[in-house]
Amino acid sequence: MARILYAPDIDFAGIRDQLGVNEEYGADALHEARTAVDRFADAREDHTGVPFVTIDPPTSRDLDQAVHIARDGDGFVIDYAIADVAALVIPDGALDQESRRRGSTVYFPDGSVPLHPRELSEDAGSLLPEQVRPCVVWTIPVAADGAVSDIRVRRSRIRSVARLDYAGVSADAEAGRLHPSIEALPAFGELRRQVALDRGAVELDLPDQQVSHADGGWHLELEPHTPAEVWNSQLSLLTGICAGTIMAEAGIGLLRTLPPADPERVEELRAAAVALGVDWPDGLSVGHFLAGLPSDRPSTLALQSAAGGLMRGANYLALDGTDEARAIPHDKKQHAAIAGLYAHVTAPLRRLGDRFATEVCLAVTSGQEVPEWVRRALPTLPKILRSADSLSATAERASIDLAEAVILGDRVGQRFDAVVMSAATERKPAQIFIADPPVIAGCEGELRAGDRLQVELATADEVTRTVAFRPV
């Protein structure tokens, strides 16, 4: 983890104001959140005897998911509990309308602005430890070859027995002391990851550039993904694939889609590999190629960054239950990076669409009609979710840009070692990565991806949130 010290104070409130993001939910929505009761309390199974655990960042309180994994011969049985937000939100009520206005939780370095008031997202709806909570439990048997069958989805109640975090789970796995409820998580995660690659999935493993507060000041950090994050992501991906398949086959629901990569983009990635001296054997898929790159080489950073260009055009597709929806071509329903059908259902406290998609899955798997309030909402959700995704991306980038400008403000003219992540285009300059401090920024000049060079900080403007470099 790279870090630079330090900026004693950075004010992110201006970004929130500029984007119109705040915690003003309105009196009626707040009242509904504070007085929320489980609308399905009498229709739940009881899983409080199953020792579920949650795995999240250490500061999180909006805990959407809890898991228990059991060995089943050479396979696994996954019990995945998802917060039942639909049970706590009155359809078409004030809180429902307010959540549709927002679309998702928005994250900033100094805190989040939740999709739902904290009384619900961090208390009544959150799967906090030693609290009985309403949830939707997905039971997914996974065979030794990674195949799934006999999926069950139903309302239940659980009591999480432990609140774990990614770094702790990774350390416990290395030390051989994983919590009994997730002893099988590494084996499950590696199996499903291999199945995904064999299926044609593409996984980018770029480290996260983060702004964090510690030791009395703000820091820029580069956080590689921990093993636990990679394993845990397979739980969410598996559930999302199951959900997408259920809804696509029924012709009703909300899918997350991504068109296949433009063949020209793939050829450009191959050309970049040749230019960087990286061997790409004939017949090796994009996913397998990227997964096999050594993590400690500058060329890997450049190729992983360039591969992001393969994943353009992500969208949402609402299916309305008509024959026309069922007749939509299969490739129009798929998510190319996952190489299959996919839907968001595992983060309903933080993403609006998950609540509605989950209701569809509950209805379809139980042979019931999809609730009318869900049917009415489905056509409106893609536009809301696209807007929310754009807002979240803007907030994240603006926050990092501001932190970089403030922290580097007194270092204009200094030199740094850099790696070129991508060459210049018509729209933006070449992008470089500096390890210490961990900065991704534009740089003047005709640069080639993967090259190492020394650069000089030319601009660090807090007002415009601009950082720029030039070659030495």
Notable traits:
472 residues, five-stranded mixed barrel, 35% helix, alpha+beta
Strand content: 25-35%
Main sheet specs: 5 strands, mixed
Order of strands, widest sheet = 2-9-8-5-4
Distance between the termini: 26 Å
Structural class: alpha+beta
- Uncertain residue ranges: 1-5
Radius of gyration: 23 Å
Give a description of the structure.
By secondary structure, this protein is α+β, with helices and mostly antiparallel strands. The chain is 35% helix and 25% strand. It is built from 15 helices and 21 strands. It has helices spanning 13-19, 27-34, 94-102, 118-124, 166-175, 185-199, 227-250, 263-275, 286-291, 298-307, 323-326, 330-333, 352-366, 372-377, 381-407; strands spanning 3-7, 45-46, 53-55, 65-72, 75-83, 106-108, 111-113, 132-142, 152-159, 162-164, 208-214, 217-223, 252-257, 315-320, 334-335, 340-341, 415-422, 430-434, 439-443, 452-461, 466-471. The protein has a 5-stranded mixed beta sheet with strand order 2-9-8-5-4, covered by helices on one side. The chain has a 5-stranded mixed β-barrel with strand order 17-18-19-21-20. Strands 1-12-11 form a 3-stranded antiparallel beta sheet, covered by helices on one side. Residues 1-5 have low confidence and may be disordered.
Concise synopsis of the structure shown:
This protein has 472 residues and is an alpha+beta fold. 35% of the residues lie in helices and 25% in strands. Mean pLDDT is 93; it is low at 1-5.
